[in-house]
Automatic annotation (TrEMBL):
Designated name of the protein: Flagellin
Family of this protein: Belongs to the bacterial flagellin family.
Keywords, sorted A to Z: Bacterial flagellum, Cell projection, Cilium, Flagellum
Localization, UniProt: Bacterial flagellum
Pfam families to which the protein is assigned, alphabetical: Flagellin_C
Highest taxon in the source lineage: Bacteria
Residue span, Flagellin C-terminal domain: 216-298
UniProt key word Lipid biosynthesis: no
Keyword set includes Signal: no
Length: 299
């Protein structure tokens, strides 16, 4: 005698299989919705250690990259200030060339021009980024340059500088710390301020020799500021190289983390469709079996 419906053991196996497929379907739906293939470390026992190490390394690299981007902005702001000082020195030099013209130079309003330039110099050297004055050494909470009422005619930073001589440093990579920047007490800035002060006094006294001396001081200041820009450029280039390495490392670590815990959506969608088709077929068969009557058994 043969049976047309499954026995009890077969029914239990069918129920267990359906439950497993249902659980797998729920997991797939959650993976697609969240974008994460795993939610517990016990699901990735073989890769859990690698995942934790990759996450830790990613956190450190991200913190260093953020710090280095802030440092890059500081260097860019300092370079912009130095670029402005180069422009001021060049304008001052052109003004002195006109002043040394024996025909019309004596009558030009050089004092007004020089006063305006000195104010610009102070503003550039008092450049801030956020709450920090960039040319003040470690005393970043206050403007480093305060020009006196009278003319400064000697290259002496103590006559205008209110910062200190500490060059700032930053940890830019594992085991790598760089010292960067420049203070407003640098000889190039002192030369520039003194040259403009000398020109101001010489103009008022109609002192041609004094004007020529101021011109020489301007040339020295201009060369010095250009050298400072070159130094900042070298620091910025080194920092860019380190930042590029951090960005590449972060991309690599993100790939590792993603490969372990992120959902492969096309694969999961295919598996989900297969499981859903299996469930629908199983439910249809179960429904037909449940609808069988005694008459069906006797046929």
């Amino acid at each position: 005698m043969s049976f047309r419906i499954a026995d009890l053991a077969h029914g239990q196996r069918l129920t267990s299989t359906l439950a497993a497929i249902q659980a797998r379907t729920r997991e797939a739906q959650m993976a697609i919705a969240s974008g994460k293939a795993v939610r517990r470390y016990d699901q990735i026992a073989d890769d859990a250690g690698l995942l934790l190490r990759a996450r830790d390394a990613r956190t450190l690299a991200g913190a260093l990259l953020d710090r280095n981007q802030t440092l890059a902005r500081r260097l860019q702001a300092m370079d912009s200030a130095l670029d402005g000082l180069v422009g001021i020195a060049q304008r001052a030099r052109a003004a002195l060339v006109r002043r040394l013209d024996s025909g019309t130079g004596r009558n030009m309003p050089l004092t007004t021009e020089l006063d305006s330039m000195l104010a610009e110099i102070a503003a550039r050297l008092n450049t801030k980024l956020g709450e920090d004055h960039l040319f003040a050494g470690s005393r970043t909470d206050r403007p480093p340059v305060v020009l006196p009422a009278g003319s400064i005619t000697v290259a002496d930073p103590s006559l205008y500088y209110r910062g200190d001589e500490v060059r700032l440093s930053a940890r830019v990579d594992e085991g790598v710390e760089i010292t960067y920047g420049v203070t407003a007490s640098d000889p190039a800035f002192a030369d520039l301020i003194a040259a403009l002060g000398q020109a101001r006094v010489a103009h008022a006294a109609d002192d041609r020799a004094g004007l020529e001396q101021a011109m020489a001081g301007l040339d020295a200041a201009l060369d010095g500021i250009i050298d400072l820009r070159g130094g900042l450029g070298a620091e910025a280039a080194r920092l860019d190289s380190i930042r590029d390495a951090h960005e590449a490392g972060i991309a690599y670590l993100d790939d590792i983390v993603s490969g372990i815990e992120d959902t492969d959506v096309p694969t999961v969608m295919t598996r989900l469709a297969q499981d859903q088709a299996t469930l629908e077929a199983a439910y249809a068969v179960t429904g037909r079996l449940a609808a069988l009557s005694l008459a069906d058994y006797l046929r």
